[in-house]
């Protein structure tokens, strides 16, 4: 089973089109990728510790302008 939030965040790190869509409307961009409402709210909250906890130890996150993830 894939983790839609993790996949979205990894894609967000390198997909310029997705980055633009996210900058314009984070909630809409995540909804279009079928991200669960609780994960949408987590991302919007920018609670980086909670996001890291949600993704687990297989990922690292970056949160300069946009919060993204990379698989370790």
> What is the tally of beta strands?
2
Please write the string of helix (H) and strand (E) elements. HHHHHEE
Going across the major beta sheet, what is the strand order?
1-2
Strand content: 5-15%
Distance between the termini: 18 Å
Biggest sheet record: 2 strands, antiparallel
Helix content: 55-70%
What does this structure look like?
This protein has 72 residues and is of the alpha+beta class. It has a domain at 25-57. 61% of the residues lie in helices and 14% in strands. It has a two-stranded antiparallel ribbon. Helix 2 packs across helix 3 and helix 3 (26-32) packs antiparallel against helix 4. The two termini are 18 Å apart.
Task: Write a short abstract of this structure.
Helices cover 61% and strands 14% of the residues.
